[in-house]
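Sample entry (45 residues):
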Amino acid sequence: MKDDRMASIVLAAGYSSRMNSFKPFLEFGGCTAVETVVKRIKTRE
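Predicted structure, serialized as tokens:
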């Protein structure tokens, strides 16, 4: 039996003093950085 499960760890940290926000939650292209990474991981399943 083949097991196709996969686990991922998303490393996201840091506060941007110039942007006055938490970097992983900054939006670009309509999504946050964290959302973009998670979506890309999920499409590889």
